[in-house]
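Help! Submission page says 'invalid entity' but I think these are all valid:
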Amino acid sequence: MLSLTSLLTPVARFWRFAVVVGLMLGAARPVLAQFTIEELEVHVTARPGTPVTRIIPVRSDIDSTQQVRVTVRDWMRDSTGSNVLLDYGSSPRNCGGRLDAFPLTFQLGPRATEFVRVTYTPSTPADSGCWAIVLSETVRPPQPAQQAGSTVTITTLMGVKVYAHAVDERVEGTIVSADVEEFWTAPAVPATDSILTRQFAARFANSGTAHLHVKTSVEIRDEGGRIVSLLTGPDSYITPGAFRDILVGAPELPRGRYVAVILFDFGGQEITAAQVELILP
Amino acid sequence: MSRSFVRLMAGFALVAVPMVSVQAQTCTVPQAGGNCAVNFNSTVTVPVLASLDVAAAGSLALTPPVWATFFATPVLTRTVSQTAFTVRSNSPYSVAISAGAWTQPSLAGRVVADLSYAVAPLTCPAEASITASVAGGSVVTGGTPTGGTARLLCLALEFPGDLTSNKLLPGAYTLPLTLTITAP
């Protein structure tokens, strides 16, 4: 008995194959970003009487013209290090009328580069600095309304953080707490028992007026004082007045008593450390 | 005569100009037969480059339940949809997610908490594991420089198991999501 497939001519088979491959390639092809930002951070010093202007290049990655919208907002980091965007002027350390971005809308030609000017005009006398974020997005035409079903519309924003640093900023950090946390977690594969997991948990506060970049490491020593494990924690960025909860997973070690020294290198004169006891019964 | 003079001066200029530029450099010969080293500094500034590609930038249709089955035996159902996103950056970065409010039929009661998300490298996890709120959160915290790390943004939408729920009113439901790439 002949099947339908066997009746197809080689030419028809080729075109069917080509259509299938074409559909697969079309589905797998990534959509290019609309544009690339050539800055993610802008740093200026809030020196009285000296307005500072910085240029942010915005480069088109597509072959068609697009309309770009620029907005300025406030931002903060939560205790896990996540960025949270806020309405402009709502943060206690907002830049208010001292910060200006121009233009707020512009046309970006195919593969062209345009420039957004960010100007900071410090107050007199010197202020204690502030921070904000300049967001750029491609303005898309409104989508036709769906008749039924659920849809999400996805917008991508490119954010450039603007830091206005105080002239006499202080680099200071404080360890608020440090401890070993234990908790049960479900194993990755089905099993009857959970796994006891331990991690070093520390809260580090920025008690100065400078933005901190904190590098964390943990030295674990046995009762003889020998280092049995060296761990590296995540890099943490902390704004003045904020704190960060830093978590570093503990390694598996033989039973015994250990001392863990959690080191915080925040760019100050010295490295700050906290000591916690780790007992593995 | 005059043309020869001009030619002579032009030739002299061609020879003289490179000589003048070389005079600004220093050549050190420590001993006879040694090497002559001319050192100079050249500077190039590499800007921070960052881009965020979302395959479904614009609009993504969320997967509905199998309506015939759902209608026959309505139970709380969560469906999973996905889109890929790729970050390219030569410096550390973070990606955050936020949501606006549902545009929905009059009297409908969908809330932002009905949609949750997770980020996965290759395949989306089971719907029960997709729990983070799209209302605000970090999709990628402290990402390291990458030439193009592709990830999946997995979205789980909840459908209540009650046909009289105001979340099941007929019509179109649209939620605006925003992905923002910034420095950490």
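Support: the input was valid. A stray whitespace character was the problem, and the output above is from the cleaned input. Chain A touches chain B at residues 30-41, 57, 61, 75, 80-85, 133, 135, 140, 143, 145-161, 234-235, 237 (CB under 8 Å).
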